[in-house]
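user: Please supply your own:

assistant:
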Amino acid sequence: MPKGSPQLTNARKEEIINACEKLYQTMSFKEITLKEISAETSFTRTSIYNYFQTKEEIFLALLQREYELWNVQLSEMMSQFPALTKDEFADKVAHSLEKRSQLLKIMSMNHYDMETGSRPERLAEFKVAYGNSLKTVMHCLERYFPDMPIAEKQQFIYTFFPFMFGIYPYTYVTEKQRTAMETAGVNYAFMSIYEITFNCIKRLLKG
């Protein structure tokens, strides 16, 4: 690929995002630095600034990619299944998020910090992917539940998306957190990503 070509630029961005994703599997957001991200790539930390100016921009790009992958999953669902019952719809969307634990993990972070630490153009790119997720879920509702009033479809969207921000913390609990809850006498009923999502969607579809 020629130096400075769009293909090289995109390849470099993907390499940086992949490095961030790899580190995020064993480290927290606060622990990860640009220096550590660059150590997982084939180029220097200084070169990263040609593509991303902050760590927050890299995480936002990773979140953007996760939204885009989820959009593909939902679109494939609509292509494969022309009709679904409420239970079937809840089942398939729950399974789609079960495959996107990375999306849910990043969503549970502080969006304000990520967005504040990103340039307007990077933030706009992310908002396109996020907006497409809203549209895709709305298309799903229009496809499978054409008789649902538009107000109820909108209520579904603006209840389900904020709900998604809390899925990861409720389904992934560390031993430290579990011990603290037991010490505090807090009864915790463990639920998987699938279970908590399936139950939420079923309740929302009941109006």
The chain has a mean pLDDT of 94.
